[in-house]
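Figure 3 (text version): structure tokens given as input.
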């Protein structure tokens, strides 16, 4: 009986532990940069310090809450610029220098959801939101087709990402790898070809549009 009680107690502890760490918020994520993330080391080295000084990260909440506020269906994005290449090769983060960012929150969010979503992206992308220069609303849409590696993200006329799957025709040196990791913690990520990545908003002192690069990630997330 003593052994049975110990086994039962262990089982209960396991249930409590896994339940206590269950995700409270889940959804879709897409990211694009102004440098290649799926590439050969020689190409990546050639871009360092010259490209990749801009990045766009976007989230769409499927289900969940943040600090008690329900965020089902709400989206947000962070656009960040830096003095040098933003990235992490899986070993060392690059010295991106000073960074500043703009946060976009879904225009359909209530005032409580707006505030919660700002806190969520600041907590999720801490490294890139230390100097937020502008926070504004925008009509956000984000749809990921993970099978086809197709993502469509838009924030009105302010920001945009469109992707497709990588193909053999995108292979240049036959030594391509996922050279850079996603900028934030995500799950089920895969690289994709960025047909277009654009930011035409205010606050960052620059606007940019990047076409036809191996610079995007599709992923899911849970917190």
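Below: residues designed for each position.
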């Amino acid at each position: 009986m003593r052994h049975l009680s110990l086994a039962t107690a262990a089982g209960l502890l396991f249930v409590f532990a896994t339940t206590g760490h269950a995700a409270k918020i889940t959804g879709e994520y897409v990211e694009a940069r102004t440098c290649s993330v799926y590439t050969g080391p020689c190409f990546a080295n050639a871009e360092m310090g010259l490209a990749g000084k801009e990045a766009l990260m976007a989230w769409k909440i499927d289900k969940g809450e943040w600090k008690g506020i329900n965020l089902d269906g709400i989206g947000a994005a962070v656009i960040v610029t830096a003095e040098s290449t933003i990235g992490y090769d899986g070993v060392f983060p690059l010295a991106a220098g000073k960074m500043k960012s703009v946060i976009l929150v879904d225009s359909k969010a209530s005032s409580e959801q707006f505030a919660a979503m700002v806190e969520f992206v600041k907590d999720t992308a801490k490294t890139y939101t230390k100097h937020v220069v502008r926070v504004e609303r925008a009509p956000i849409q984000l749809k990921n087709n993970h099978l086809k590696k197709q993502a469509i993200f838009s924030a009105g006329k302010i920001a945009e990402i469109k992707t497709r799957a990588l193909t053999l025709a995108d292979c240049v040196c036959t030594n391509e790898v996922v050279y850079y990791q996603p900028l934030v913690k995500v799950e089920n990520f895969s690289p994709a070809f960025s047909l277009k990545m654009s930011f035409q908003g205010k606050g960052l002192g620059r606007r940019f549009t990047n076409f036809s690069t191996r610079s995007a990630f599709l992923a899911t997330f849970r917190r």
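Residues 2-20 form the longest helix (19 residues).
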